[in-house]
Amino acid sequence: MSKVSSSTVALVTGANRGIGRAIVDALLDRGVAKVYAGARDPKALDGLVAQARGRVVALELDVTRPEQVAAAAQRATDVTLLVNNAGVATGFGAPITDPAILADGRTEWAVNVEGTLRVTQAFAPILAKNGGGAVVNIGSVASLANFPAFITYSISKAALHSLTQATRATLAAQGTTVHGVYPGPVDTDMGKVLPIDKVSPRSVADEILDGVAQG
């Protein structure tokens, strides 16, 4: 049975721009029942909420803040699809000898790894209660090979790949499917520093939802 249908209720973190916003748009176009759109500044979602006419619920959700994650879980009790999209990349081009990349790495770890784990922990019981559902973790091609221009970002995304594998094994018993996504360069604000060809966020979003629907 498809995990993306008219009965789907999704939560997308980092939903105000880039791949997150594209996933929300793609979900709405596919006729899902509701999308909870998480962002650190929910006002950034005002236009999306108005456009969706009641099908998008904005949530204040900084994945590094446990109280906001807990509040989101208390409100969004009908979620059947969790998309862990919130992510950050810093320190582009910094050499490994630069002491500043330690701070960059801590920031990336807090969002890309701990934030994903925190949200998954909060929503796994909800997914189980609602029949299992699915989790999607937005990684990167940098999850699979370190890019020296993004040293600590690559490290955090490699850890996210490992977390995805652990989550898949752990949640299988409750009927939750877990999907890892590993895009190359995407035309987002984060990708602006890369002077190379990029794919559109919407093309990535459609591939993700096709993959979830196909299992």
Query: Which overall shape is indicated by the principal axes computed on the Cα atoms?
Result: globular
**Arithmetic mean pLDDT:** 94
The termini sit apart by: 9 Å
How many beta-strand segments?
A: 6
Name the helicity range. 40-55%
Q: What is the number of helices? A: 6
User: How much is the radius of gyration in Å?
Assistant: 16 Å
Task: Describe the protein.
It is a single chain. This protein is an alpha/beta fold and 215 residues long. It is built from 6 helices and 6 strands; from the N terminus they run E-H-E-H-E-H-E-H-E-H-E-H. Strands 3-2-1-4-5-6 form a 6-stranded parallel beta sheet, with helices on both faces. Helix 4 packs parallel to helix 5 (151-171). The longest helix is centred in the middle third of the chain and has 30 residues, at 100-129. The chain is globular and about 50 Å long.
Question: Quick gist of this model?
Answer:
It is built from six helices and six strands; from the N terminus they run E-H-E-H-E-H-E-H-E-H-E-H.
Strands, helices and their partners?
Elements (H helix, E strand, L loop, with lengths): L8 E4 L5 H12 L4 E6 L6 H7 L3 E5 L5 H10 L5 E4 L15 H30 L4 E5 L12 H21 L5 E5 L19 H13 L2
Parallel strand pairs: 1-2, 1-4, 2-3, 4-5, 5-6
Helix pairs in contact: 1-6, 3-4, 4-5
